[in-house]
């Protein structure tokens, strides 16, 4: 139906990967985007991966999503999810008793386990929401003297539009390619089929309006 096709096309963005200057991974407590970024790095699409995040401002602390992870002999990484085990008893990744103070630590560890070398991982560990991910990533890039002409943004599929808007605002001269991952089972094909999918996607639509009021006011003088 046309009305939800329009919403789908607005929220869900995906580009084929191409060679870029850097891969950005906005903060989160889930492993999927970092694992995808590691795949893209290993395939030679970028020399650096920048992870960003302290923890969610709404929680005030970091709690990772526990999923099994086996780095494998080649370091490529394989899922070993043990859904029938209590979180405290799960092996694999993160290992039992592992503690990460920030999203940045957690995502960096995933990258390292998936074969991304230490020197290729750029860390930003202060952001507590998506706009700060973009702001502080820009500050870090500038402090390192990085010229970001093209970049890949690895994020959750339903979060793609809002991530892109924030990063475009902070990197206005950069061409972004969106290489998302499907999380929570919410994709462009099925989001309208469940209450959770509808709530998540329409929540993103609402945030794209509500959270940009003050940002847009900064540019009124240019009109």
In terms of topology, how is this protein built?
Elements: H1 2-11, E1 22-25, H2 32-42, E2 49-52, E3 69-70, E4 78-79, H3 103-113, E5 121-124, H4 130-143, E6 150-153, H5 160-170, E7 175-178, H6 195-210, H7 213-217
Parallel strand pairs: 1-2, 1-6, 2-5, 6-7
Antiparallel strand pairs: 3-4
Helix pairs in contact: 1-6, 2-3, 4-5
Core attributes:
5-stranded parallel β-sheet, 7 helices, 223 residues, alpha/beta, single chain, Rossmann fold, two-stranded antiparallel sheet
Short note summarizing the structure:
By secondary structure, the protein is α/β, with parallel strands linked by helices. Helix content is 35%, strand content 11%.
Notes on the structure:
The chain has one domain (14-184): HUPs (Rossmann fold, 3-Layer(aba) Sandwich). The chain contains seven helices and seven strands; from the N terminus they run αβαβββαβαβαβαα. The protein has helices at residues 2-11, 32-42, 103-113, 130-143, 160-170, 195-210, 213-217, and strands at residues 22-25, 49-52, 69-70, 78-79, 121-124, 150-153, 175-178. The strands form two sheets. It has a five-stranded parallel sheet with strand order 5-2-1-6-7, sandwiched between helices. A two-stranded antiparallel sheet has the order 3-4. The longest helix has 16 residues, at 195-210.
Nearest-integer average pLDDT: 88
Percent helix? 25-40%
CATH architecture: 3-Layer(aba) Sandwich
Number of strands: 7
Summed up, the domain count is: 1
> Oligomer, anyone?
single chain
Unreliable residue stretches? 71-92
Radius of gyration: 17 Å
CATH H-level name... which superfamily? HUPs
Gross morphology: globular
Q: Which range does the strand content fall in?
A: 5-15%
Largest sheet: number of strands, sense, barrel closure: 5 strands, parallel
How far is the first residue's CA from the last residue's CA?
36 Å
Helix-strand makeup class? alpha/beta
- One letter per element, helices H and strands E, the order comes to HEHEEEHEHEHEHH
Give me the number of helical elements: 7
Write down the CATH topology. Answer: Rossmann fold
So what's the CATH class?
A: Alpha Beta
Major sheet: arrangement of strands: 5-2-1-6-7
């Amino acid at each position: 139906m046309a009305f939800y096709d329009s919403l789908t096309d607005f929220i869900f963005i995906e580009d084929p990967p191409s060679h870029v200057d850097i891969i950005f991974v906005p903060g989160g407590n889930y492993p999927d985007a970092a694992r995808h970024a590691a795949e893209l790095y290993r395939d030679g699409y970028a020399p650096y991966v920048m992870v960003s995040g302290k923890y969610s401002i709404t929680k005030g602390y970091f709690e990772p999503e526990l999923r099994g992870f086996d780095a494998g002999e080649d370091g490529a990484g394989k899922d070993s999810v043990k859904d029938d085990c209590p979180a405290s008893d799960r092996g694999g990744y993160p290992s039992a008793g592992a503690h990460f103070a920030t999203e940045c630590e957690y995502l960096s560890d995933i990258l390292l386990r998936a074969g991304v070398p230490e020197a290729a991982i750029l860390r930003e560990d202060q952001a507590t929401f998506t706009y700060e991910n973009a702001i502080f990533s820009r500050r870090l890039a500038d402090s390192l003297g990085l010229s970001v002409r093209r970049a890949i943004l690895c994020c959750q599929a339903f979060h793609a539009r809002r991530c892109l808007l924030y990063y475009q605002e902070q990197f206005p001269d950069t061409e972004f390619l969106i290489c998302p991952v499907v999380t929570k089972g919410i994709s462009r094909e099925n989001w309208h089929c469940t209450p959770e999918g509808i709530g998540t996607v329409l929540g993103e639509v609402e945030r794209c309006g509500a959270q940009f009021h003050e940002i847009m006011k900064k540019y009124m003088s240019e009109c």
